Amino acid sequence: MTEVQEPITPRARRTYNKLLRSAEEIFEDRGFFRSSVAEICRRANVSNGTFYRYFTDKRDIFIEIAEQLGADLTKEIEGKVLDSREPFDSRLALLLQTYFSFLRNHSSIYQIFWQAEFVNWNTHQAFYTKLTETLGSVFTQGIDSGYFQEHDTQLMAHYLLGTLSFVSMRWIIWESYSVDEKVVKSLKEFLIQGLSTEDSAKNFERPPFTPLQVKNHKNEPELLPKNKSNTRFKLLSAAEHCFGADGFYGTTIGDITRQAEVAQGTFYHHFSSKLEVFEQLVREINRRWREEVEKRTRESDHRLKVEYEGFRVFFMFIANHSGMYRIVREAEFVEKSLGRWYYENFATRYREALRKASKSGEIRTIHPGVLAYSLMGIGHFLGQKWFVQENRERTPAPEFDAMFDLILNGMGI
Questions:
Q1: Which residue has better confidence, 116 or 20?
Q2: Of all residues in the chain, what percent carry a pLDDT higher than 90?
Q3: What is the pLDDT of residue 401?
Q4: Which residues does residue 121 pair with via DSSP β-bridges, in sequence order?
Q5: Which of 27-31, 41-45, 109-113, 269-273 bottoms out in mean pLDDT, i.e. has the lowest?
Q6: What is the pLDDT of residue 110?
Q7: Do 225 and 247 have their domain in common?
Q8: Based on the domain organization, do 214 and 359 belong to the same domain?
Q9: pLDDT band at 195 (very low <50, low <70, confident <90, very high)
Q10: Alpha-carbon distance 391 to 125, whole Å?
Q11: Which CATH number goes with the domain that contains 315?
Q12: Element (H, E) at 259
């Protein structure tokens, strides 16, 4: 194989950049695993041989795109926010607008960075490490200026990234809209003031946090009934195990049938394809998660109590079912409509509950859609940090308390 070259001449640089932009578009349209070098070259109008002058394979060009976009985003935040002389109230709004504008102008960034977890873990980690450091510096400045409360700045950065990512997913990725001033204003209000009002805070006494359950060390499938006489359930449980361990694209139907201890032909009596069994699992996870939350929060008589218990349950769910969590995270890259359905199905109910709570005065009146996706994003990002990146066995009590304090009271003084 020809050794890759640095694009030194102006002509080589133009070709190199054309390949990068074509790959970015292809990865956004089709995802990394469904894309090919040949497609990238056709869109760039260059030969396959030209591609291999600059990149070893499609993973190599994916990593280059992710690293460039990450560097550009952090540079923009540093230049516009960290170096700004504006008052911090204006700088927070500027931070939100900078992030959303960058994402709107580079809509592939969301798809690329979220896929990076499944393509190259080091790239994924490096991006979020750099971005959290940059955001942490913003929060340090804000704390020093007296605008923000004193909290761990890395926790604040992950908290903010959760809200930014899910609000972006809802308005920019799904709808292809710009995030308007109304959404930015609502998000800023939530970030600074939190959920609780003066009256609602008096009616909610937060108990000392205790994790609900230790991690399932055996990492066995627990989503579905273990009914040895039902072959369909055996196949679903086997698929849960395989997808959770190796991902959709790393799993074959043969892997599933071997795990289920059935003949490969038996699979097709119950499912038409690997995608069908994956879709069934995602819908089953959604049902199970909603049932678990409803069961645990049924006796809660105040929305703040529901939120508290809901986050406890969510983190317990991730800690005990990390494989299922991987399946959900991967869903939107396997089938975009399936990933969207999963989050929208939950967000629709969540939004209505938050709207009712704001009308009754249990929480602050904030755009319920912004609030629903912000809270979902916070849970996602901190769950990923604690149970995927750090591989914790249970929810860390101090961090949970700090997170919920931000949810209740916001970041502002």
A1: 20
A2: 55
A3: 93
A4: none
A5: 109-113
A6: 67
A7: yes
A8: yes
A9: very high
A10: 14
A11: 1.10.357.10
A12: helix 253-260
Residue owning tokens 């209740």: 408
Q: ∠ CA 65-70-75 to the nearest 5 degrees?
A: 130
Domain holding 94, by residue range, is: 68-198+368-388+400-413
Owner of token pair 């592939």:
108
Q: What is the pLDDT of residue 219?
A: 44
Neighbours of 215 (CB within 10 A): 18
Q: Report d(CA 351, CA 401) in Å as an integer.
A: 24
Q: Whole-angstrom Cα distance, residue 191 to residue 92?
A: 10
pLDDT at 221: 43
Radius of gyration (Cα) for the chain, nearest Å? 23
Asked if residue 205 is part of any domain, the answer here is no
Cα(24)–Cα(28) distance, integer angstroms: 6
Average pLDDT, integer, range 16-31:
90
Interatomic CA distance for residues 38 and 31, integer angstroms:
15
Q: How many residues does the chain have?
A: 413
Q: Is residue 395 part of a domain?
A: no
> Rounded to whole angstroms, how far apart are CA atoms 25 and 30?
9
* Residue 333 main-chain phi, psi, to 5 deg: -95, -15
Cβ neighbours for 305, distance < 8 A, ≥ 6 positions apart = 204, 297
Q: Are 364 and 193 in contact (CB under 8 A)?
A: yes
**Closest by Cα among 105, 89, 110, 108 to 164:** 110
Residue 131: partners with Cβ closer than 8 Å, 6 or more residues away? 70, 73, 74, 77, 157, 161
Residue 217 confidence (pLDDT): 43
- CA end-to-end span of the chain, whole Å? 60
